[in-house]
Amino acid sequence: MKKKSLIIHESRMLMLLICLFSAPLFAQENNYSQKSDFWNHVRFGGGIGLSFGNNFFSGTLAPSAIYQFNRQFALGVGLSGTYNSQKNYYKSTIIGGSIIGLFNPINEIQISAEFEENNVSIDWDSRTGFANENYWYPSLFLGAGYHARNVTIGIRFDVLYDNSKSTYADPWMPFVRVYF
Predict the structure, then answer these.
(1) How far apart are CA 29 and CA 15, in angstroms?
(2) What is the pLDDT of residue 82?
C-alpha cells in the first residue's frame, strides 16, 4: 500500500514539475510572437549629408525609425549628428534627437510634425573675435509632401525658427524622407 501511495505521490510531483516548467516555455513562445509582430511594423530610414567647397566642409548622419500603426499613422524617433568647419573661421558640432509623427490622409499625401532638440557647439577661430558657444536649440517642423512607396518628397517649416540661433539657414526646408 505504501509503495502504491509513493508512486501516486511521485506521479503527482512529476506532473506538477512538468506543468511548472512548461508554462514559462509557452509564455516565452507567446512573447516571441508578439515581439516579432512589433518588428513587422517598424521601418528604418534616415539621412546622410555631405557638403564642401571654398574651405568649407559639412557632414551629417541622421538615422531614424518609425512604428507604422496602420496605413495612415506612424510615430518615430531619430538621432542626428553634424560636423561643420570653415577654415580660419569656425568648427561646429550639432548633436540631437527628434520625435516625428506622420499622417497620410490619402496614400499619396503625407503630413508631418517633427520636434527636434539639438545641442550646438561652435568653436570660433580666435581671429574672428567671437566667443565660443554651446547651447540647446529646439525646432518644430510642420511639413507636407508627396508620398510614393518608401519615399516622401516635400517641404517643411520650422515654426520656432530664430535667425540668430537656428541650426538651419532658413525656416523653409525641402526634404526627402525614405523608410524601409
Answers:
(1) 21
(2) 96
Helical H segments across the chain, by residue range: 2-40
Cα-based distances in Å from 107 to 58, 103, 110, 148: 35, 10, 8, 8
94 closest CA partner among 127, 139, 54: 139
Amino acid at 45: G
Edge-to-edge, what's the strand order for the sheet holding 90-106? 42-53, 56-68, 73-86, 90-106, 109-124, 133-148, 151-158, 172-178
pTM above 0.90, yes or no: no
Contacts of 102 (CB under 8 A, 6+ apart): 66, 73, 74, 75, 76, 110, 111, 112
CA atoms within 13 A on the CB side of 23: 5
* 53 grid coordinates: 567647397
pLDDT tens by residue, 130-147:
999 999 999 999 999 999
The 10s digit of each residue's pLDDT in 91-103 is 999 999 999 999 9
Is 146 in contact with 171 (CB distance < 8 Å)? no
- Three-state secondary-structure class, residue 126: helix
